[in-house]
Amino acid sequence: MPEDTSYDVDLLVIGAGSGGVRCARIAAGHGARVAVVESRHWGGTCVNLGCVPKKLMVQASEYGDYVQDSHGFGWNTEQGAFDWGKLIAAKDKEISRLNGIYVSMLEKAGVRLLTGFAHFENAHTIVTKPTALAPDAKPERITAKQIVIATGSTPSKLDIVGAEFAITSDEVFGLKEMPKRVCIIGGGYIGIEFAGIFAGLGAKVDLVYRQALPLRGFDEDMRTALHEAIDQRGVTQHVKASPTRIRKDGDDLVVTLDNGSDVTVDCVLLATGRHPKTAGLGLENTRVRTTEEGRIEVDHHSETAEPGVFAIGDVTNRLNLTPVAIAEGHILADRLFAHTARSWSFDTTPKAVFFTPPLASVGLTEEEAAENGATDIYLSKFRPMRHTLSGRERRTLMKLVVDQATQKVVGAHMLGEDAAELMQGLAIAVTAGLRKADFDRTIGIHPTSAEEFVTMRTRTRVRGS
Ligand code: FAD
Predict the structure, then answer these.
(1) Are residues 454 and 364 in the same domain?
(2) How far is the centre of ligand 1, averaged over its atoms, from the C-alpha of 380 (Å)?
(3) 134/174 Cα distance (integer angstroms)
(4) Are residues 131 and 142 in the same domain?
(5) What pLDDT digit, counting tens, does each position of 31-50 carry?
(6) Do 24 and 141 sit in the same domain of this protein?
(7) Which of 62, 194, 217, 465 is the most buried (most CB within 10 A)?
(8) Residue 2 clears pLDDT 60, i.e. is over it
């Protein structure tokens, strides 16, 4: 690749999160001169304040169940005390290890690392300002032929009286003590996952959300089954409700809801959405355009209105998931420096919600498929084998959504143990456009819950026309 020495680097990536790291690494691998600026934490949200610590906490929250369930299998186990401080310390140690891996991965790829908060001076020049990650770092000015904005997103706080008493997912991972009573506001995946975590760890949990069912946008049958599962987990759900204020009463926090009720807790967690992180970036010094809700507008090549400036990941608010940000970063680096484009099937991006039990899905919901035409629905609800002996009231729900005309499986959904692990394989089948007959001719693995996906013979209903 010919060097353009009129710029310090060929590519400057702002943000060392899921998308930025992949984009920088692949671009450097193609021979580009690459620099990355990071203001807060190497690895970004997923590693530090998202997927990874969240999943470790979900796992921590499930050990109590295993102890209880073991009794039905003949074990005389006793549940000891849970030590929050020990979990947080172990989690922090693991995250420091991952931070180190991200730094060394980038260094090995030959990427230049800059610590600081990036600000556009113009479309080809960035200045960095010191931040908490490196308060003594000297400000730097760096020019780049092309720039990728991969600054992610940040939690949104509700605009209500007393919102300052609440925390968001950014703070929850560092709480010094485990709250005994938690009120979680928001029925999206982050709210649901923390409801599961705190309930599993023994807290009293109140979950408040605006709709009649949690997880807007997911399949209705799954939402209904999740609603039941949340009840079974011992979480109190306040549906069709919103908080109007939060006040402090001694050591308590009191959340007043618009249905007139008060919820008294030790901790209020706002899980009320996230917004793209563009504040302070200096976009006004470029032609990059943002929408009213603040996401950076890009075309199908992730290019902004400013030629040579790109945006990937959560800051574009497309599908806000780590594997999607990674794929966007990879595609962009290939296109800019290898002139090839690896393709991914974004339409069949699988999703998981790590509640206990988890929910996972790929492809269309029943409602979406029915809008396209007649749809065959296959449903199966059963008690998983483990709970025949454990005695735990927990059901698994599985669902296949099949386009009647083509017989292609256009959606698969599951609420039940190991749903996320299982859905990855099903996502391959749905991405490949396999038909119901292909599922039917697949031999099951017995005895598993997963085999149900290849043994659902009888159509439950037809939807749409
Ligand atoms: P990020 O990973 O957020 O990285 C952006 C980086 O840019 C950050 O490190 C930030 O410090 C840096 N930055 C911002 N502004 C500047 C600046 N001006 N200068 C320099 N650096 C800057 N996704 C999943 O797929 N699975 C999950 O289970 C999952 N769980 C989640 C749980 C929680 C609680 C949260 C909050 C998110 C979760 N996500 C999950 C979403 C996932 O974390 C994001 O989709 C993903 O991290 C987006 O990657 P990104 O590269 O766009 O941004």
Answers:
(1) yes
(2) 36
(3) 20
(4) yes
(5) 999 999 999 999 999 999 99
(6) yes
(7) 194
(8) no
**Residues 362 and 243 occupy one common structural domain:** no
- When the pLDDT of each residue in the chain is averaged and rounded to a whole number, the result is 96
443 alpha carbon – ligand 1 mean position (Å): 40
Question: Where does ligand 1 bind, in terms of residues with CB under 6 Å?
Answer: 14-20, 37-41, 44-46, 49-51, 54, 117-118, 150-152, 169, 190, 277, 281, 313-315, 320-323, 325
Of all protein residues, the one whose alpha carbon is nearest to atom 26 of ligand 1 is: 51
- pLDDT at residue 1 is higher than 90: no
Confidence of residue 313 (pLDDT cuts 50, 70, 90): very high
Instruction: Look up the CATH number of the domain holding residue 212.
Output: 3.50.50.60
- Which band of pLDDT confidence, cut at 50, 70 and 90, is reported for residue 132? confident
Mean pLDDT for 216-238 is 98
Rounded mean pLDDT, 143-167: 97
> Which helix (H) or strand (E) is 65 found in, with range?
helix 51-70
User: Hey, which of 14, 21, 49, 51 would you mutate to test ligand 1's pocket, going by the most ligand atoms within 8 Å of its Cβ?
Assistant: 51
Q: Give the pLDDT mean for 57-61.
A: 98
Within-domain flag for 375: yes
Count the domains in the chain. Answer: 3
Q: Is the pLDDT of residue 52 over 90?
A: yes
Least trusted range by pLDDT, from 292-296, 303-307, 309-313: 292-296
Residue (of 227, 256, 230, 242) closest to 165 by Cα position? 256
CA 271 to each of CA 11, 171, 328, 359, 435: distance values in angstroms, whole numbers, following the listed order: 35, 12, 26, 18, 38
142 with 184, same domain: the answer is no
CATH number of domain containing 367: 3.30.390.30
Q: How far does the centroid of ligand 1 lie from the alpha carbon of residue 208, in Å?
A: 25
- 332 lies in some domain: yes
Helix axes 189-200, 51-70, angle to 10 degrees: 40
Question: Is residue 37 one of the residues assigned to a domain?
Answer: yes
The angle at the Cα of 351, spanning 451 to 368, to the nearest 5 degrees, equals 90
Tens digits of residue pLDDT in 329-344: 999 999 999 988 788 9
What are the CA-CA distances from residue 303 to residues 122, 339, 349, 421 (Å)? 16, 15, 22, 34
Q: How far is the CA of 313 from the centre of ligand 1 (A)?
A: 8
Q: Whole domain around residue 171: which residue ranges?
A: 163-272
Atom of ligand 1 nearest to the CA of 172: 34
Question: 344, 377, 394 — which closes off a domain?
Answer: 344
Residue 54 placed within a domain:
no
* Closest residue by CA, ligand 1 atom 35: 50
Q: Which atom of ligand 1 is nearest to the CA of 21?
A: 51
Q: Name which residue sits closest to atom 29 of ligand 1, judged by CA.
A: 51
329 and 357 in a common domain: no
Q: Residue length, the chain?
A: 465
CB 66 within 8 A of CB 82: no
Listed residue (445, 347, 459) closest to 404, CA to CA: 459
